[in-house]
Queue: 2 jobs
Job 1
Amino acid sequence: MSGAVPTTIIVYSLAFAGFALLMTALNRRMGLTLLVGLGVLEILLLVLVGMIVARLADGGRPASVPTLIGYLIATPLVPLIAGFWGALERSRWGPAVIAVAGLASAVLVVRFHEIWPAIHV
Amino acid sequence: MSEPAASPKTGASPPESTRTGPGRLLVAVYGLFALSASARAAVQIGTKFSHAPVAYVLSAFAAVVYILATVTLSNGRPTARRIAVVSCSVEFIGVLAVGTWSIADPATFPDATVWSGYGSGYGFVPLVLPIFGLLWLRHWARRARRASAERAIVPSAGDGGVDEGAHPARSPVRSVRDPE
C-alpha cells in the first residue's frame, strides 16, 4: 500500500485543525467552511478505511485483528460526531471541537501504521 | 441559521450549561477518551486478559471514569455536576497513582493503560484533562451559588441566564405566560 493516502490525511487533518484553531482564536462561530473541510476529512478517512478493508480481503493480517477492526469502525465516526457536536455550539468553542477532530484523525492514522506497519505513512 | 422553536423558556439562545461554551470542547475531549479507553479495554480484556491483568483492569476502570465524566458534563444538572466532581477527582488521582505505579513497577505493566506514565502515550492529555474539568465545575458551582444567593435576596431580579435544577417559583413580574 502506498503511503500517499495516509500521508495526505495526516497533512490535511493537521492543517485543518490549525485552521479551526485559528477560527477559535479569532472568535468565529461554526461556518460552512469548517463543515465542508470536515466533509473532505470524512471522505479521506473513508478512502483509507476502504483501502485497509481491501487489504484484509486480500488475506493480509495485522498482529491484532480486533484492534484494527475497532479502529476501522471508530475512525470514520470522529468527524461525524465532531460535526454534530460542534454545530450545536454558537460560540468560538464550536471550531475548537472541530480542531480536536482534526488532531484526533492525524493521531488515528499514525496508530493505524503502528497497528499494521503495512499501512505506510 | 433558522432558530428552532426552543423549549418554553425565555431567551433565543439555548440555556448555558456545563456542555456549552468551553464545556463543548471539554465534553468532546472526554468523549474521545471515553471512546478510545473503552475500545482499548474491550480489546485487551477480550483477547489477552492473562497477559497483563492489572493493566487491563485499570484500562477498563479509566474507561468507566471517562464515560461517567462525558455523560455528567454533557448533562449539566446539579446532581450530574456533583457526580462529575467525584469522577474528575477520581480521574486525577487515578492518573497520578497509575502513572507513578507504572514507573515504579514496570513489571506489572507489560502493556500500557491510558494512564501509564501519566498519560504520556496520549500527549499527557489525561493528566491535564481532569484539572480543566474540575476548574470548569468549580466555575459552575460558584455561578450556581451566586445565582441562588441573588434569587434569595432579590426575588424579582431573575436574570434568566442561569437555569438551576431547583426551580423556585417564577417571579410574578416575569411570569408572562407562553402560549402552549
Job 2
Amino acid sequence: MAFLEIKDVIKDFGGLVANSNVSFQIEEGEIIGLIGPNGAGKTTLFNCIVGYYSPDSGKVLYKGNNITGLKPFQTNQAGIGRTFQIMKVTTGMTVVENVMVGAFCRTDSRHQAREEAFEILRFLGMEGMGEQYINELPIAMQRKVGMARALATKPQLLMLDEVASGLNHTETDEMVVLLKRLNTEKNITLFLIEHIMEMVMAVSQRVIVLDGGIKIAEGLPQDIVKNENVIKAYLGEKYAKSH
Amino acid sequence: MEKLKDALDFSDFSSAERIGLIIFSIFLLVFPWLGAGSFVKAVMIQFLLFSLFGMGWNTIGGYGGQVELGKAQYVGIGAYTVALLMVWWGIPFWISMPIGVLIAIGYSFIIGYPLFRLKGHYFCIATICTSLVLQDIFTNWKLVGAAKGIELPIHEHPDFLYMQFKSDNYYYYFIMVLFYCALFYMNWFRKSKLGYQLRMIKDDDEAAESLGIDIRWCKIKAYSIASAFVAVGGGFMAVYNLYIDPVSVMDLDLSIKIALMAMLGGAGSLWGPIIGAAFLVPLDRFLGSWLGGHKGLIGVDFMIYAALIMVVSAYQPRGIWGIIEQFRGKGK
C-alpha cells in the first residue's frame, strides 16, 4: 500500500485539460519533486489532491483511504499539509498567531497552541519574528510563515508549492537543509513543486515531470536530467549539456 | 477554569487601555447618582444596549469579517419571545429570555446553514432579505399582534421576576450587568480557538481551509453566538419599553445601526463596538432632539450623522479604534 497514490486523475477546465490521466505513487518518508514548465498542471494536481478541486475522474488514495473529493480541511485533518505559491500579505494577524491557527487544528488549548507555534518558529530559525506582521517580512520569510503554519497542523505529508522561488542562492541552500531536516527529524514525507532545478536535484529522491497535463517522466533526479522528453519539454538543451 | 481566567484577563492590553477600562467602569457604576436627567439616563441605557448588540455582531462581522445586516430578526425573536410568553402564559422574564435565546440560536442554525454558502455581497444581501421576510411575517401575523404590536401587562413595581420597574436605575444596572457579561465573554472569545480561526478566515480563507478549518461551520457558530447576544438585548427591549412592534424590534434600520456602530468604532477589536455606540447613540439622540424639532431643520441631524460616518470611514476603514491605534503607532 502506497502512502499517497494518484490513479488516473483527470481535471478538465471546460476544454483546457490541466491534468490528463496522471498516475503515480509516493512512499512514506520520501522527498518527491514535481516539475514541469508553466501551465503544466502542477498546482492543479496539488489542488486535486488536497481538495480545492475535485478531479473529474480518477482517484486519490492516502494511506489506502480514498480521499478524492474531500474538502481541504478534511484532507488537512487527515494529515496532509500544504503551502501556497503566493502568500496573501495580510495585516490582521502576527506571525505567531498565524502559526497558532495551524496548531489549533490539533488542540483546543491556547497555551498549548502558542507553545507549539513558538517551537515550530524555533525549528525554522524564526524565533524573533513572532510578534511581527506578515507584511513587515521579506518574501522568503513570508513563505516560511506559510510553511510554519502548515507544519503546525502536524502533517505527515507536506506539499510545498514553489517554496524556494524568489530566494537567493544562500537562502535556497538553507531551504534544502531545512527540508532535509523536516524529512529526517520530523519524519514528514515531502512533495514539492519547484522551478529552481538546482534545488529539485539537490533535495528530491525522485522527480515526477508534468507537461501539458501529462506525466512525461518519473525517476531519479540524475536520470530525469538525461531524459529526452524532459529536456525537450522543460530543461532545454543548454542545461542538459552542461550537466 | 482556564476560560474564566481568559475572560477576566486583560493583561495583554496596554496600561492606558486598562486604566481607561477601570475609569469607564467606575463611571458606569456611579452614573445614576450623578444627577443626570431621565433623557440622559435613557441615552445611557441605549448606549449599553447597543454596545451589547455591537459586541455580538462583532463575532461574525468583526472577527469573522462577514458583513451581516440581518441582526434585527434576532432582536425581534428575543423581544417577541419574552413579550408573548408573558402575555399568553405569564411566564417570567428569567425563563422566557433564555427560551428566546435558544429559539434565536436554533433559528440562526437553520438560516445560517444555507446562508453561508454565499460570500461577500451576496451574503450581505441575503441577511437583509431573511430579516425583512421575518419582519413581514410578524407584521401580518394576527396571533402575534401583527402591525399593532404587543403591549406587556404592567406589574407592580418593582417586579424582579418580570423585570418591570418604575425607576430607570434598575434597568440601567440590569443592562450594565448584561454589558459586562458580554464584555467578558468577548474578551474570552477573541482568545479562543474559534476567535483565531475566524480571524484567519477573514485574512485568507483559502489558507484557513488548508489549516484544517471548516470555514462554513466556523461561520455558522459565530453567527449563532452573535444571534444569541442580540436576542438577549431583544428580551431586554421588551421589558424596558413594555411595548414592541415589528418596526421597533425588527426593522432594517436597527440591523444597519448595529453593524454601523461596530464598524465605525472598529470591527474586530474588543473596544470597537463600545466606542462606536458611545459615539453614535448620543449623537443620534442629541442631534435628533436639538435639530429634529426645529422647523426647516428636519433631516439635518441625519445629514450630520451620515457625514460624520463618511468622514471617519474614509479616513480609516478600521474605524475610530483604528484611528486611535494609528496615532499610537500600533497596527498598520
